[in-house]
Amino acid sequence: MPDTTTIPVNVILASNSPRRKQLLEEAGVKFTVYTGSTEVDESLDADQRAQPSEAVKKLAERKAGSVIQDILAENPVGLGIVIGADTTVVLDGEMLGKPYSADHAREMLSRLSGRTHEVITGVSVWLVMLNESEEKGGDGNVSLAFRSFSETSTVTFKELSTEDINAYVATGETIDKAGAYAVQGEGAKLVKHIDGYKSTVIGLPVERLVKEFPDLI
User: Fold this and answer.
1) Residue 206: other Cβ atoms inside 10 A
2) 86 classed as catalytic
3) CA 97 to CA 109: how far, in whole Å?
4) What are the tens digits of pLDDT across the range 161-205?
5) Would you tell me how many other CB atoms lie within 10 Å of the CB of residue 138?
6) Closest by Cα among 185, 176, 181 to 160
7) Other CB atoms closer than 10 Å to residue 47's CB: what's the count?
8) Rounded to an integer, what distance in angstroms lies between the CA atom of residue 21 and that of residue 30?
9) How many other CB atoms are there within 10 angstroms of residue 86's CB atom?
């Protein structure tokens, strides 16, 4: 990506996730959260699901790209960076998405009990430069560039009893969480050990992000 150190940059997070927002804030990144719809097609075919690290990068690209399209439709001028992210839990090579019911959450947690799984977060960072129109002295051109990466942490769960699982599902944290748990909340009590960035498990590996893109700070 081009050097942006001397150009004011508007950083936009393409996610309504409060946990991703908090991670960026704690990392010292100045940004705004995109307030429009960030819903995108998250369907994956069998070949894509067979490569989880590539799949989450693809979904992160879709999320950031969707926001880019909305921004371009508004005809703004200037330089912007859009950050998209997607997280999945992988057990025995299978991607575990978000549970669709309490029973499905219990099933996922039972499978994770006492075992080690991977949590993979894909990140896609897009740079967009929009020049002023010809009427205002510019050429009206749009320049786009992006780079994506994935980061993996491993998580080992404690042995969970049926009572443990039922009590956790009752907290409501399993809703809208990949793998049916949130390590930044009550789900921390289920975890025995994390190897790698905890931020990856939460949903945005900010340590890797600012290392790859130091101009964000």
Assistant:
1) 24
2) yes
3) 12
4) 999 999 999 999 999 899 999 999 999 999 999 999 999 999 999
5) 12
6) 181
7) 9
8) 10
9) 25
142 token code pair = 């749009």
- The H-assigned helical ranges of the chain are 18-26, 46-49, 52-73, 102-112, 162-169, 198-202, 206-212
- Tell me which of 86, 92, 139, 164 is the catalytic residue: 86
* Residue tagged 């404690």 (tokens): 158
Q: What is the pTM of this model?
A: 0.89
For 124-146, how does the pLDDT look when each residue is reduced to its tens digit (9 = 90+)?
999 988 765 545 444 567 888 99
CA distance 61 to 214: 20
The secondary structure of 138-182 as a DSSP string is S---EEEEEEEEEEEEEEEEPP--HHHHHHHHTTTTTTT-GGG--
What type of residue is 43?
S
Give the C-alpha distances (Å, rounded to integers) separating 49 from 56, 117, 157, 196, 203: 9, 16, 23, 23, 19
Name the residue with tokens 């050429």. 139
